[in-house]
Each structure stands twice: as C-alpha cells, then as structure tokens.
Amino acid sequence: MTTNTSEHEYDTVVIGAGAAGLNAALLLARARRRVAVVDSGRPRNAPAAHMHGFLSRDGIAPSAFLEVGRTEVLGYGATVVAAVVDTVVATDDGGFTALLDTGVALRTRSVVVATGLRDELPEVPGVRERWGRDVVHCPYCHGYEVRDRPIGVLGTSPGAVFHAQMLRQWSADVVLFAHTLALSPEDQDQLHARGIEVVAGAISSVAVVDDVVRGVELADGTLVARSAVFVVPRMVPNDSVLTGLGCAVGADGWVSVDKAGQTSVPGVFAAGNVIDPRAQVVTAAGMGSAAGFAINIDLVQRDIADAVTARAHAG
C-alpha cells in the first residue's frame, strides 16, 4: 500500500487494530476525520477460538470480530496499513510522524496507541503449547466453558491463590498446585474452607495426550488429572511508543492517562490493554470510543484556533 507522506496527511494515526484501536478509528472516521490504522496482524487473543462477555458478540471468533471491525472502519473511509510502527516522533508544528518498518512515514495531528500487552508465561512444558485452548488465564473469558470440570491452577505467581478462589464459583473441583509458592496459614485456611485442594511439590509439566490436556505432572512423577489449567501470566504492556514520546508512567509501572485516554503528552492518547491489563474486549472498545471522542473535540478546538488565526492574517 502506498502512502502520501505530505504534512498532516492524517488527523489521527491509530496504532493497533484490536477492539480499542478499531473503535477509536470508527468513531473518528464517522466524524469525517482522516484516519490511518497501523497494525502488525498479531492480536493477543489469536490462540482463542471464541471471545466472551461482549454483548451481541458473545462466542464470536476473535478473527471474525476483528474482520467485521476492519470492514466497518474501511467503510467510513479510514486507511488500514499492515505494518509495525517502529517509533513516533513529535514534530515542531505540534504534530507527529509515525515511522513504519516498511520505510513509510505517516504525518498526523494526533496519535492513539492501542498496542495491547504481551503475556509472559511460566517456563512449564505444555503451557505455551496449549495457551488459549485448555491452558488459559481469564475466568470471565473461559470459566463458563469449563464449568463443573476438574480445574487446576498453577502456583507460578502469587496471584494464583486468589485465582483459585475465583474459579471455585465455576467448579467444585479446583486444585491449586503450590509449586514454589509459600502459602500463609491464612491462605491455607481460606482455601480449605472453600474445598480447594492444595497439592504440594514442584510442577514438572502440563500433561497433554491426544491433543488434550489430561492433567498436571509433578516433579516426582505424580499425575493429577485435570481437564483445564489456569495460569496467571506476567502482563507486560507494549508501550515503547508511549514511553518513547515521554508519556508519564505511574507508580504501578503503567502509562498514566485520564478518563478519556489522554496521556501527559498533548495529542497522544492510549486505550485498551496497553494501559489497563484488566480491560476485556468490550472494555477496550469503550476505551477506544472515549479516546476517539476526546481526540475529535481536541481537533475541533484546534480547527477553531487555526481558522481564527487564518482570518486575522487574511484581514
């Protein structure tokens, strides 16, 4: 795809074509703004067969959902570019230039960063291979589908204890594999009170037979039968574009934004998992809409100022 790189060709460049980015692009394109969406084509939820919790879209395949979104955005005149944004730099006129790995430079008045996050998984054999299928993370995304089945929770993160407590409402058969966790007496008492079994010993692997998870194997060779395994990954935001622009980072290590997604850098907005690890698809879409709304208001205010200045010079 060729792109004219004249100054301020776009009102907004949206980086990332997930729910947050596409919804921001949709709102702005409908506002008749010049919008380019740049995406690498590697969505975080690609391994999952279905997405849930999105009213009217519950059960849709993530790829189908994104295809519908892209079609809608293109229908309103936005441009979608298959590429990776290497960096974004501020320009002297208050705008930005997005430099793509294809060598193309996109000039824009504002930026929406919706690049999501990446899941750092524990180095336990079987976890990465089954990720998004029967080794999963989100109870709200997958809990109903494994209701009343034998569920295992890997103790590879301190968050695993409460994760097991959450999953108890989906199944009466939940096992927490302590692995390297040091459980407090309070943890053990609360787990016991709700009928959650704790299995001691280091985890060797997630056992897979005939392309299906069969259980969790311990270092001593013991196999505990399970049909679904939950893991709490370390979530790392893909925020290099934001930090490269100098956006402020909060005490929690995540880029700070206001309710509309405005960062500390004027004209730079962020939405979705890049700023909130808890945001589900429906939440991210709403965040994108809020950012698009705020960007358009900001651009209108700039358009007014530019028009007044131009009129004064003409007079």
TrEMBL record:
It catalyses: [thioredoxin]-dithiol + NADP(+) = [thioredoxin]-disulfide + NADPH + H(+). Gene3D superfamilies: FAD/NAD(P)-binding domain. Residues 10-286 form the FAD/NAD(P)-binding domain. Keywords: Flavoprotein, Oxidoreductase. It comes from the Bacteria. One of its GO terms (molecular function) is thioredoxin-disulfide reductase (NADPH) activity. This is Thioredoxin reductase. The gene is trxB.
